[in-house]
Design brief:
alpha+beta; 6-stranded antiparallel beta sheet; 14 helices; flat; cell inner membrane; transferase; membrane; phosphoprotein
Amino acid sequence: MRRPTWSGLWLALLVLVPALVGGLLGYRWSERAGLSQLASVTGERLALYAATLESELARFAYLPSLVAAEPDIEALLLQPADLRRREEASRKLVRIAARAGASGILILADDAGAEPEVLASSLRGGAAGQDALPPRALQALLRDGPRDYFAANDADGTTDYYFVQVVQRQGRRLGQVVVRVNLAPLEATWIDLGLRTQSERLLVIDENEVVVLSSVPAWKYKTTGAQAVREDTGRYAAASLAPLDWQEVQELEPGVRLLALAAPDGRSIQRQVAQERTIVPLGARLLALSDPSEVQRLARHAAWGGAAGGALLGLLALYGLHRRRSMRQLLAARNALQQAHDQLEAQVDERTWQLRSANEELTRQIAQREEMEGELIQAGKLAVLGQMSAGISHEINQPLTALRALSGNALQFLEAQRLREVAGNLRMIDEMAERMGRIVGQLKSFARKEGLSHQPVVLSQAVRNVVLMLGHRLREQPVDLLVEVPDDLQVLGDLHRLEQVLLNLMGNALDALRGVALRRLEVHAELSGQRVLVQVRDSGPGLSELQWARLFEPFFTTKGAGEGLGLGLVISSKIVAEFGGSLRALRPVPGQGMVFEFDLPWAQGSVRPSLPGELLG
């Protein structure tokens, strides 16, 4: 026999009723807490916005008094018919407005007529009054009396704030000082902030219940209350002053209301949490509208959570009613869980063994890779040693050439019985031999990458030594040699290694000048900041783009067979790099020779150079 169907319905109600109650309570609690937090945050920001508006206008509150105290302004008010004083006062107002950042400053005569006369103005039109203030605004000044107020700008629809002060002397009214401040930048900041961060929507409402500032342009110059606005007030230009369609739904807490108002596009109704703050000095109210949609979304989530909690309570009650059956199910589930645990433990053990095996394999591969890296490093060292052995013959070739020139000169001096010059050449031959030994030692040290001792070196001395070593070539191959190196300019480096670089660059330049009609070699040095820039320039035929791109490749040379190994620039570049600089060749221009330049650290203890070098022929 089948059981009655009402038992199934009763069990369903036991779950659904707590779920509905929990969802309702969760929604109400979350919504109340969220709206309270939203009101708190909005209130803090509202105070900040109000302070910003007050401080923005407070910067100009002193300006009417300052202008009224100017002697030229007072003299104009005493003699308003003097055109020269009007022009002088207008020019002064232009300067004051520019310094203060005001949109305009006007001086009005104390005229009881329908429209006050503009005596002087910082705006275009000057004392003539054109483009100074709209006539309706001038009439509003006269009718409403001397007080500060918001008004619309007829030209672009933005909002201005007017500071108005009556000028009196000995109880006599002389006129009025009007300072206009445009609030468009502040309003644009509010609009941009609302677009980028979806923050509060702001409205500034004046004493006539007209929205004079708003972060939503569609709400500007609309009315918010029943107070009528006179059509001839002149303060709102051609604005329609249509009512802003909103309705108070409820008061959430003191000072916090929930409003229903039309969206800016007018197609839908939105709910907004409204808070306002009265700005007493301005006679206006600042209203902040916050979107509660996020609060409502979280409240819906809380409702689902509450419903889930209520359903859980119903299930717990159902569990109590069916405890015996549940206990049997629990025991079965425990057995199944134990079985799954055992299976998982076996899988973990198997996975651990696999990871251990993979780790051991990875360790073995790392050891093999380290061994291979060591072998590659050793092979690299052998390759560098081979390159250095080829470079020794190239670097010794230049001192040998100098020795041949010095020995030939010594023989000529000996035949001419010029013993002093012979002794000098022999000493230089001894120095060249010693330099050859140092070159070999330096190249060995370079191959072992040993450090160099950096000490101040007189650059001009290194150039003179190189010119002396190249003397025989300069005599065999007449060249216009121009050396512009200050005598007191010092660099940090090693004298002999620096001579190697200069000897290689100048020797290459002399090679390039063979067969050229105009043979000119220039060596130039100058101080640039904390660096010394050295240039070696020749008037040879230059290089092609392809040759220039390969200049610093080992064993690349443009010379004939037996004239070069292609290692000079490579070695020179490494020497300059060890000094803390860089050697480079400027991009060649066909037919205009080559320019090599390198920079070295300046020896700061030396005197900053100021005199040019000398011309050697």
